[in-house]
Amino acid sequence: MIKRLELKGTPREIGEEHGRAGVKEIQNSLETYEKLFFGYHRISWKEARERALVHLKAIEAYDSDLIEEMEGVAVGAGVDFEDILTLNARSEIALTGRKDIAFADGCTAIAVTPPASKDTIIGQNWDWKGSQIDSLLLLNIEQSDKPNITMVTEGGIIGKVGFNSAGVAVCLNALITDKKSEEVPIHLGLRAVLNAFSFHEAIAKVKDGQMASTANFLMASDEGDNRTMAANVEVSPFGIDLLPNPEGTHVHTNHICSRSLMKKITDLNEFKYEDSMVRKQRAEQLIYSALKMRPAINEDCFKEWFSDQFNYPNSINHFPNEKAPEHRRSETVFSIIMNLTRKRMFLCVGKPSSHQYVEVSSHALH
Q: Which segments constitute the Peptidase C45 hydrolase domain (predicted)?
Protein backbone atom coordinates (compact mmCIF):
# COMPACT_ATOMS: atom_id res chain seq x y z
CA MET A 1 0.00 0.00 0.00
CA ILE A 2 1.08 3.53 -0.73
CA LYS A 3 0.73 6.24 1.90
CA ARG A 4 -1.76 8.89 0.81
CA LEU A 5 -1.42 12.48 2.02
CA GLU A 6 -4.09 15.17 1.77
CA LEU A 7 -2.29 18.51 1.59
CA LYS A 8 -3.73 22.01 1.40
CA GLY A 9 -2.99 25.58 2.33
CA THR A 10 -0.04 27.83 1.61
CA PRO A 11 3.11 26.39 0.03
CA ARG A 12 4.76 26.27 3.45
CA GLU A 13 1.73 24.56 5.03
CA ILE A 14 1.59 22.02 2.20
CA GLY A 15 5.28 21.33 2.67
CA GLU A 16 5.12 21.03 6.45
CA GLU A 17 2.33 18.45 6.30
CA HIS A 18 4.23 16.54 3.61
CA GLY A 19 7.26 16.53 5.93
CA ARG A 20 5.36 15.53 9.08
CA ALA A 21 3.19 12.81 7.58
CA GLY A 22 5.84 11.54 5.18
CA VAL A 23 8.85 11.60 7.49
CA LYS A 24 9.56 7.84 7.16
CA GLU A 25 9.41 8.01 3.38
CA ILE A 26 11.66 11.09 3.37
CA GLN A 27 14.22 9.35 5.56
CA ASN A 28 14.20 6.39 3.20
CA SER A 29 14.78 8.73 0.24
CA LEU A 30 17.71 10.35 2.01
CA GLU A 31 19.28 6.96 2.70
CA THR A 32 18.73 5.73 -0.87
CA TYR A 33 20.25 8.79 -2.50
CA GLU A 34 23.20 9.03 -0.16
CA LYS A 35 24.14 5.49 -1.26
CA LEU A 36 23.31 6.19 -4.89
CA PHE A 37 25.40 9.37 -5.15
CA PHE A 38 28.37 7.58 -3.65
CA GLY A 39 27.82 4.55 -5.85
CA TYR A 40 27.60 6.59 -9.05
CA HIS A 41 30.07 9.38 -8.43
CA ARG A 42 31.91 8.63 -5.18
CA ILE A 43 30.62 11.86 -3.68
CA SER A 44 29.54 12.37 -0.10
CA TRP A 45 26.14 13.69 0.96
CA LYS A 46 27.87 16.94 1.96
CA GLU A 47 29.18 17.39 -1.57
CA ALA A 48 25.79 16.46 -3.02
CA ARG A 49 24.21 19.24 -0.96
CA GLU A 50 26.76 21.69 -2.31
CA ARG A 51 25.93 20.64 -5.87
CA ALA A 52 22.23 21.16 -5.20
CA LEU A 53 22.76 24.67 -3.84
CA VAL A 54 23.99 25.96 -7.21
CA HIS A 55 20.35 25.76 -8.40
CA LEU A 56 18.92 27.86 -5.58
CA LYS A 57 19.13 31.25 -7.30
CA ALA A 58 17.40 29.97 -10.44
CA ILE A 59 14.61 28.31 -8.44
CA GLU A 60 13.95 31.51 -6.48
CA ALA A 61 13.62 33.47 -9.74
CA TYR A 62 11.49 30.73 -11.33
CA ASP A 63 8.91 30.27 -8.57
CA SER A 64 9.60 31.22 -4.96
CA ASP A 65 6.63 29.08 -3.85
CA LEU A 66 8.78 26.03 -4.61
CA ILE A 67 11.35 27.27 -2.10
CA GLU A 68 8.63 27.86 0.47
CA GLU A 69 7.24 24.36 0.03
CA MET A 70 10.67 22.70 0.27
CA GLU A 71 11.42 24.71 3.40
CA GLY A 72 8.13 23.48 4.83
CA VAL A 73 9.00 19.87 4.02
CA ALA A 74 12.32 20.26 5.82
CA VAL A 75 10.69 21.74 8.92
CA GLY A 76 7.99 19.07 9.00
CA ALA A 77 10.48 16.22 8.61
CA GLY A 78 13.05 17.70 11.00
CA VAL A 79 15.85 17.82 8.42
CA ASP A 80 17.86 20.59 6.80
CA PHE A 81 16.48 22.55 3.85
CA GLU A 82 19.61 21.55 1.91
CA ASP A 83 18.65 17.89 2.35
CA ILE A 84 15.27 18.44 0.70
CA LEU A 85 16.78 20.61 -2.02
CA THR A 86 19.24 17.81 -2.77
CA LEU A 87 16.43 15.28 -3.17
CA ASN A 88 14.72 17.60 -5.63
CA ALA A 89 17.97 18.01 -7.59
CA ARG A 90 18.82 14.31 -7.51
CA SER A 91 18.62 13.85 -11.30
CA GLU A 92 21.06 16.69 -11.91
CA ILE A 93 23.47 15.18 -9.38
CA ALA A 94 23.15 11.53 -10.42
CA LEU A 95 22.47 11.46 -14.14
CA THR A 96 24.56 14.19 -15.77
CA GLY A 97 28.13 15.13 -16.42
CA ARG A 98 29.88 11.74 -16.40
CA LYS A 99 30.86 9.50 -19.30
CA ASP A 100 31.58 6.46 -17.13
CA ILE A 101 28.18 5.91 -15.49
CA ALA A 102 27.39 2.81 -17.59
CA PHE A 103 23.87 2.72 -16.22
CA ALA A 104 20.70 1.43 -17.88
CA ASP A 105 17.78 3.48 -16.65
CA GLY A 106 14.16 2.44 -17.04
CA CYS A 107 10.72 4.05 -17.47
CA THR A 108 8.35 3.50 -20.37
CA ALA A 109 5.75 6.23 -20.93
CA ILE A 110 2.75 5.96 -23.27
CA ALA A 111 -0.10 8.28 -24.24
CA VAL A 112 -2.99 7.93 -26.69
CA THR A 113 -5.39 10.56 -27.95
CA PRO A 114 -7.86 10.76 -30.83
CA PRO A 115 -7.75 9.44 -33.51
CA ALA A 116 -6.05 6.41 -31.92
CA SER A 117 -8.49 6.38 -29.01
CA LYS A 118 -11.73 8.08 -28.04
CA ASP A 119 -10.17 8.93 -24.68
CA THR A 120 -6.98 10.74 -23.77
CA ILE A 121 -5.00 8.25 -21.68
CA ILE A 122 -1.46 8.72 -20.39
CA GLY A 123 0.69 6.62 -18.10
CA GLN A 124 4.00 5.01 -17.42
CA ASN A 125 5.98 2.38 -15.60
CA TRP A 126 8.36 4.22 -13.29
CA ASP A 127 11.55 2.19 -13.06
CA TRP A 128 14.17 3.07 -10.48
CA LYS A 129 15.76 1.73 -7.32
CA GLY A 130 13.67 -1.05 -5.77
CA SER A 131 14.28 0.41 -2.31
CA GLN A 132 12.30 3.49 -3.32
CA ILE A 133 9.04 1.56 -3.13
CA ASP A 134 9.25 2.37 0.60
CA SER A 135 9.55 6.08 -0.25
CA LEU A 136 6.44 6.38 -2.42
CA LEU A 137 3.75 8.88 -1.52
CA LEU A 138 0.44 9.65 -3.19
CA LEU A 139 -0.17 13.36 -2.77
CA ASN A 140 -3.51 15.11 -3.20
CA ILE A 141 -2.73 18.83 -3.13
CA GLU A 142 -5.28 21.64 -2.83
CA GLN A 143 -3.67 25.00 -3.48
CA SER A 144 -5.07 28.48 -3.98
CA ASP A 145 -4.73 30.15 -7.39
CA LYS A 146 -3.39 26.94 -8.93
CA PRO A 147 -4.99 23.67 -10.03
CA ASN A 148 -5.46 20.83 -7.56
CA ILE A 149 -2.91 18.06 -8.11
CA THR A 150 -2.77 14.30 -7.70
CA MET A 151 0.83 13.11 -7.87
CA VAL A 152 2.87 10.02 -7.10
CA THR A 153 6.29 10.97 -5.82
CA GLU A 154 9.21 9.98 -3.62
CA GLY A 155 9.21 11.30 -0.06
CA GLY A 156 10.62 14.83 0.00
CA ILE A 157 10.35 15.46 -3.75
CA ILE A 158 7.65 18.02 -4.53
CA GLY A 159 7.26 17.39 -8.27
CA LYS A 160 6.82 14.16 -10.19
CA VAL A 161 4.24 12.13 -12.14
CA GLY A 162 0.55 13.00 -12.03
CA PHE A 163 -2.29 15.19 -13.29
CA ASN A 164 -4.29 18.21 -12.22
CA SER A 165 -7.84 19.56 -12.11
CA ALA A 166 -7.25 21.53 -15.34
CA GLY A 167 -6.80 18.26 -17.26
CA VAL A 168 -3.01 18.52 -17.60
CA ALA A 169 -0.88 15.43 -16.94
CA VAL A 170 2.82 14.65 -17.12
CA CYS A 171 5.06 11.57 -17.08
CA LEU A 172 8.87 11.45 -16.83
CA ASN A 173 11.59 9.64 -18.73
CA ALA A 174 15.09 10.15 -17.34
CA LEU A 175 17.85 10.80 -19.88
CA ILE A 176 21.52 10.32 -19.03
CA THR A 177 23.62 13.05 -20.65
CA ASP A 178 26.93 14.89 -20.44
CA LYS A 179 25.72 18.43 -19.75
CA LYS A 180 23.73 20.33 -17.16
CA SER A 181 23.30 23.93 -16.07
CA GLU A 182 22.58 25.79 -12.85
CA GLU A 183 18.96 26.38 -13.82
CA VAL A 184 15.84 24.67 -12.40
CA PRO A 185 16.03 20.93 -11.57
CA ILE A 186 13.71 18.82 -13.71
CA HIS A 187 11.60 17.56 -10.78
CA LEU A 188 10.66 21.15 -10.00
CA GLY A 189 9.88 21.58 -13.68
CA LEU A 190 7.46 18.65 -13.38
CA ARG A 191 5.75 20.45 -10.52
CA ALA A 192 5.52 23.61 -12.62
CA VAL A 193 3.79 21.60 -15.36
CA LEU A 194 1.30 20.27 -12.82
CA ASN A 195 0.73 23.83 -11.60
CA ALA A 196 -0.27 24.88 -15.13
CA PHE A 197 -3.83 25.55 -16.26
CA SER A 198 -3.15 24.68 -19.91
CA PHE A 199 -0.83 22.88 -22.30
CA HIS A 200 0.43 26.27 -23.45
CA GLU A 201 1.32 27.32 -19.93
CA ALA A 202 2.99 23.96 -19.24
CA ILE A 203 5.23 24.31 -22.30
CA ALA A 204 6.14 27.86 -21.31
CA LYS A 205 7.41 26.58 -17.96
CA VAL A 206 10.04 24.30 -19.50
CA LYS A 207 11.19 25.97 -22.73
CA ASP A 208 14.16 28.28 -23.43
CA GLY A 209 16.70 26.39 -21.34
CA GLN A 210 14.87 26.81 -18.05
CA MET A 211 15.55 23.17 -17.09
CA ALA A 212 18.96 22.31 -15.65
CA SER A 213 19.26 18.86 -17.20
CA THR A 214 17.82 16.76 -20.01
CA ALA A 215 14.70 14.61 -19.67
CA ASN A 216 11.54 13.75 -21.52
CA PHE A 217 8.25 15.12 -20.20
CA LEU A 218 5.37 13.23 -21.83
CA MET A 219 2.55 15.76 -21.48
CA ALA A 220 -1.15 15.47 -22.19
CA SER A 221 -4.08 17.83 -21.86
CA ASP A 222 -7.81 17.26 -22.23
CA GLU A 223 -9.98 20.38 -22.12
CA GLY A 224 -13.20 18.52 -22.96
CA ASP A 225 -15.28 18.53 -26.18
CA ASN A 226 -12.49 16.67 -28.04
CA ARG A 227 -9.99 19.47 -27.38
CA THR A 228 -7.02 17.31 -26.52
CA MET A 229 -3.34 16.82 -27.25
CA ALA A 230 -0.33 14.84 -26.11
CA ALA A 231 3.34 15.17 -27.00
CA ASN A 232 6.77 14.11 -25.90
CA VAL A 233 8.63 17.22 -24.80
CA GLU A 234 12.36 16.67 -24.51
CA VAL A 235 13.64 19.38 -22.19
CA SER A 236 17.25 20.45 -21.78
CA PRO A 237 19.55 23.30 -20.74
CA PHE A 238 19.61 24.25 -24.44
CA GLY A 239 15.88 24.45 -25.00
CA ILE A 240 13.19 21.91 -25.87
CA ASP A 241 12.01 19.86 -28.79
CA LEU A 242 8.32 19.03 -29.14
CA LEU A 243 7.71 15.59 -30.63
CA PRO A 244 3.97 15.28 -31.38
CA ASN A 245 2.25 12.58 -33.43
CA PRO A 246 -0.94 13.49 -35.32
CA GLU A 247 -1.90 9.79 -35.36
CA GLY A 248 -2.46 10.03 -31.60
CA THR A 249 0.09 7.56 -30.19
CA HIS A 250 3.11 8.57 -28.14
CA VAL A 251 5.89 6.47 -26.61
CA HIS A 252 9.14 7.42 -24.90
CA THR A 253 11.78 5.49 -23.02
CA ASN A 254 15.28 6.56 -21.98
CA HIS A 255 17.23 7.84 -24.94
CA ILE A 256 17.18 11.20 -26.71
CA CYS A 257 15.00 11.19 -29.83
CA SER A 258 15.37 14.83 -30.88
CA ARG A 259 17.91 15.34 -33.66
CA SER A 260 18.28 19.01 -32.76
CA LEU A 261 19.08 18.25 -29.11
CA MET A 262 21.53 15.51 -30.08
CA LYS A 263 23.62 18.18 -31.80
CA LYS A 264 24.14 19.85 -28.41
CA ILE A 265 24.01 16.99 -25.91
CA THR A 266 25.61 13.55 -25.77
CA ASP A 267 23.36 10.67 -24.77
CA LEU A 268 25.28 8.55 -22.25
CA ASN A 269 22.83 5.66 -21.89
CA GLU A 270 25.25 2.88 -22.84
CA PHE A 271 22.46 0.31 -22.95
CA LYS A 272 20.04 2.24 -25.13
CA TYR A 273 20.18 -0.27 -28.00
CA GLU A 274 19.49 -3.42 -25.98
CA ASP A 275 17.19 -1.79 -23.40
CA SER A 276 15.66 1.62 -24.10
CA MET A 277 15.23 1.25 -27.86
CA VAL A 278 13.86 -2.27 -27.53
CA ARG A 279 11.28 -1.14 -24.96
CA LYS A 280 10.24 1.76 -27.20
CA GLN A 281 9.83 -0.43 -30.27
CA ARG A 282 8.02 -3.11 -28.26
CA ALA A 283 5.56 -0.55 -26.87
CA GLU A 284 4.93 0.81 -30.37
CA GLN A 285 4.39 -2.74 -31.63
CA LEU A 286 1.84 -3.43 -28.86
CA ILE A 287 -0.03 -0.21 -29.64
CA TYR A 288 -0.08 -0.94 -33.38
CA SER A 289 -1.36 -4.46 -32.71
CA ALA A 290 -4.15 -3.08 -30.51
CA LEU A 291 -5.16 -0.60 -33.20
CA LYS A 292 -5.43 -3.42 -35.71
CA MET A 293 -7.11 -6.04 -33.51
CA ARG A 294 -9.18 -4.27 -30.84
CA PRO A 295 -12.36 -2.19 -31.15
CA ALA A 296 -10.94 0.48 -28.84
CA ILE A 297 -7.87 1.34 -26.78
CA ASN A 298 -8.70 1.70 -23.08
CA GLU A 299 -7.09 1.41 -19.65
CA ASP A 300 -7.05 -2.40 -19.90
CA CYS A 301 -4.75 -2.09 -22.91
CA PHE A 302 -2.36 0.02 -20.86
CA LYS A 303 -2.42 -2.56 -18.07
CA GLU A 304 -1.44 -5.28 -20.55
CA TRP A 305 1.28 -3.16 -22.14
CA PHE A 306 2.82 -2.20 -18.81
CA SER A 307 2.85 -5.88 -17.75
CA ASP A 308 4.78 -6.95 -20.86
CA GLN A 309 7.95 -8.98 -20.21
CA PHE A 310 9.48 -9.22 -23.68
CA ASN A 311 13.29 -8.83 -23.45
CA TYR A 312 13.35 -9.72 -19.73
CA PRO A 313 14.87 -8.34 -17.50
CA ASN A 314 15.01 -5.15 -19.59
CA SER A 315 11.32 -5.37 -20.43
CA ILE A 316 8.60 -2.73 -20.22
CA ASN A 317 7.72 -4.47 -16.95
CA HIS A 318 11.29 -3.97 -15.77
CA PHE A 319 13.20 -6.39 -13.54
CA PRO A 320 16.56 -5.76 -11.84
CA ASN A 321 19.61 -7.01 -13.73
CA GLU A 322 21.31 -9.18 -11.12
CA LYS A 323 24.59 -8.96 -13.05
CA ALA A 324 24.81 -5.21 -12.48
CA PRO A 325 26.17 -3.58 -9.30
CA GLU A 326 23.43 -3.09 -6.72
CA HIS A 327 23.32 0.70 -6.99
CA ARG A 328 22.80 0.41 -10.78
CA ARG A 329 19.91 -2.05 -10.70
CA SER A 330 16.59 -0.69 -11.86
CA GLU A 331 13.11 -2.19 -11.69
CA THR A 332 9.48 -1.13 -12.01
CA VAL A 333 8.55 0.57 -8.75
CA PHE A 334 5.07 1.76 -9.70
CA SER A 335 2.79 1.97 -12.72
CA ILE A 336 0.25 4.73 -13.30
CA ILE A 337 -2.57 5.13 -15.82
CA MET A 338 -4.52 8.41 -16.09
CA ASN A 339 -7.65 8.72 -18.23
CA LEU A 340 -8.06 12.47 -18.60
CA THR A 341 -11.30 12.21 -20.59
CA ARG A 342 -13.13 10.06 -18.05
CA LYS A 343 -11.29 11.63 -15.12
CA ARG A 344 -10.01 8.49 -13.47
CA MET A 345 -6.65 7.13 -12.44
CA PHE A 346 -5.27 3.64 -11.76
CA LEU A 347 -2.14 2.97 -9.72
CA CYS A 348 -0.12 -0.22 -9.26
CA VAL A 349 2.57 -0.19 -6.58
CA GLY A 350 5.21 -2.68 -7.65
CA LYS A 351 5.45 -4.58 -10.93
CA PRO A 352 2.17 -4.85 -12.88
CA SER A 353 2.96 -8.48 -13.63
CA SER A 354 2.59 -9.39 -9.97
CA HIS A 355 0.50 -6.61 -8.37
CA GLN A 356 -2.95 -5.17 -9.00
CA TYR A 357 -4.01 -1.76 -10.24
CA VAL A 358 -6.28 0.17 -7.89
CA GLU A 359 -8.51 3.04 -8.94
CA VAL A 360 -7.63 6.22 -7.08
CA SER A 361 -10.09 8.97 -6.20
CA SER A 362 -8.83 12.53 -6.21
CA HIS A 363 -9.74 16.19 -5.89
CA ALA A 364 -7.89 16.70 -9.19
CA LEU A 365 -10.64 14.71 -10.90
CA HIS A 366 -13.26 17.35 -10.19
A: 118-353
Q: Cα angle vertex 281, ends 344, 252, to 5°? A: 50
Q: Whole-angstrom Cα distance, residue 300 to residue 306?
A: 10
Whole-number pLDDT of residue 361: 82
Task: Return the bridge partners of 171, or none.
Answer: 218
Q: Is residue 152 domain-resident?
A: yes
Q: Is residue 187 in some structural domain?
A: yes
Cα-based angle 87, 200, 160 (whole degrees, multiple of 5): 20
Q: Which of 279, 236, 276 is nearest to 258 (CA)?
A: 236
In a domain, 37, yes or no: no
**pLDDT, tens only, 340-366:** 999 999 999 999 999 999 999 876 655
Over residues 109-128, the pLDDT tens digits come to 999 999 999 999 999 999 99
Domain count, the chain: 1
Return d(Cα 122, Cα 343) in angstroms, integer: 12
The CATH number linked to 246 is 3.60.60.10
- Beta strands, E only, 236-356: 241-244, 249-252, 331-339, 344-349
- Cα separation of 48 and 94, whole Å? 9
pLDDT band at 329 (very low <50, low <70, confident <90, very high): confident
Strand residue runs (E) in the chain: 3-9, 108-112, 121-128, 136-143, 149-154, 161-164, 168-174, 215-222, 228-235, 241-244, 249-252, 331-339, 344-349, 358-360
Label residue 168 left, alpha or beta by phi (over 0 means left) and psi (-120 to 50 means alpha).
Answer: beta
Q: Domain limits at 173? A: 101-365
